[in-house]
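# step 3/5: fold
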Amino acid sequence: MSSVQDILGTYLHFQDGGRADAIPVSDSFWQELAAGAHPQLDRGRLMSAFTFSEPWSMWERHPAGEELVMLLSGAATVVLDEAGEQRSVLLDSPGSYVLVPRNIWHTAHTAVPTTMLFLTPGAGTEHRPVEA
């Protein structure tokens, strides 16, 4: 039997075979993922959501495939680094989204409380710091 869950507190792993599993969120989840602690997530897609109110401190990219970035509330600019050229995509209405191409570095900027939903290929997310 299904029950109501909150995507801000439980991520979803959509496996290639069609099954979806809930993944409890912890403060250390992303560090654990980077350290290889969740190998089951290497296949399929991970759905997550975050609320933030300032620019991201990191760039990220996904060598395994495209990422859906969808605005749920607030407003944000997603910045894509495409062959050394930065392109900005403004998401300013709920439901607006961008598909970030495979292996493209991206980050987000906002100055207001913003919640975004992400559908990410499970394997190999890479990060690098945003330089001031």
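# step 4/5: annotate
The chain has a mean pLDDT of 89.
# step 5/5: archive (pending)
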